[in-house]
Design a protein that fits this description.
heterodimer, A: mainly beta, B: about 120 residues
């Protein structure tokens, strides 16, 4: 069945460091791919999306590219801030159903 | 625009008791979802409504969980009787129908603790 696998957390970085959170998926066909973010005490928010192969989603300095050949959708940011501390979820949408990875907690230290 | 509203935000009950959660989606959103998020895991879809009809409830434990959306707007999720393993955050989300329906908007969730 369809599934999403994310790198294990927690990830701890210093401010202004480069961030990569790996995400790979298993699905039939061509699902849409998403990154959601959950800030402490808040609900899930859509961070970025890509609906077809080679699309690049971007928002708030974060980017992710839909790689069909490697079934991946890695999240990157060139310079993280303390305010980026949150839990990040990779997800795929297929058949109207969102399937989430287990989440990766990011902690950014000043 | 008001977001997805959920209540209560927190609930503590003993096992074998019953509990109900309420969700009011964004105005005009025809599709409503209930997810269960166990600590350390991603959200898992329990049930999806399109207007007042059930689209997918394949992962809803129907022996103890029930949900309704009688007028196609707000929804209630009930657990009766609760078990310890039901401790989780219950998230409600909504989306438009049609080509824009891939974007789901989530409420703040209800954190349930079963003791």
């Amino acid at each position: 069945g369809n599934s999403v696998t994310q790198m294990e957390g927690p990830v701890t970085l210093s401010e202004e460091a480069f961030l990569t959170i790996n995400c790979t998926y298993t699905a039939t066909g061509y699902p849409s791919l998403f990154w959601y973010v959950q800030y402490p005490g808040e609900g899930l928010q859509l961070l970025l999306k890509a609906t077809k192969a080679d699309d690049k989603g971007s928002n708030k300095g974060f980017e992710a590219t839909y790689r069909k050949e490697t079934t991946s959708f890695h999240l990157e940011k060139g310079s993280v801030q303390v305010s980026d501390s949150a839990v990040y979820f990779c997800a795929l949408l297929q058949g109207g159903k969102l399937i989430f990875g287990q989440g990766t907690e990011l902690s950014v230290k000043p | 625009e008001a977001g997805v509203a959920q209540s209560p935000r927190y609930k503590i009950i003993e096992k074998r008791q019953s509990v109900a959660f309420w969700c009011n989606p964004i105005s005009g959103h025809a599709t409503l979802y209930w997810y269960q998020q166990i600590l350390g895991q991603g959200p898992k879809l329990l049930i999806q409504f399109q207007n007042n009809g059930v689209v997918d409830d394949s992962q809803l434990p129907k022996d103890r969980f029930s949900a309704e959306r009688l007028k196609g707007v707000d929804s209630t999720l009930k657990i009766q009787p609760a078990k310890l393993e039901d401790s989780a955050v219950y998230l409600c989300a909504s989306s438009l129908s049609g080509p824009l329906s891939y974007e789901q908007y989530f409420g703040p969730g209800t954190r349930l603790t079963v003791t």
